[in-house]
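**User:** Once you have settled down, spend some time on the protein underneath, comparing sequence with structure tokens, and judge whether sequence predicts the tokens.
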Amino acid sequence: MSGHGFTSAFATELDAYLAFKANMGFTGASRIWYLKQFDAYCAAHDRTVFDKDTVEGWVGVQLQRCGRYRSWMSYIRDVGRWMTMNGIPDAYVLSDRWKAPIVAAHPICCPAVRSSCSSPPPHRFRRHARGAGRRSRSSP
């Protein structure tokens, strides 16, 4: 078992990758959690080669669990890149075709969405556009 509890054939590489990221100041718990999920998948399915079948097999399982959020894919893609630069040139780097499409976080700011809306923006936005904060005419 490794320092992070990895047990698959990739335990040494995953620990070394996390040490590399920690040295760069990236110590997020979500990265470790998802890599532990990958490690458990590899151990359970006797995966010993970091290839397309291994990586995309795990991605397929994760997609059934996670719904629409795919930010975790960057972790396994980054591991593949790191491995190719650190002595495992045949390691698979997850294809960009797995990236989630970009979704506008604020649809009111997106012209394509705004033009398809039939109702005006909420009152709080209209008020600011008209010059909120002006004094009323009856004040001295």
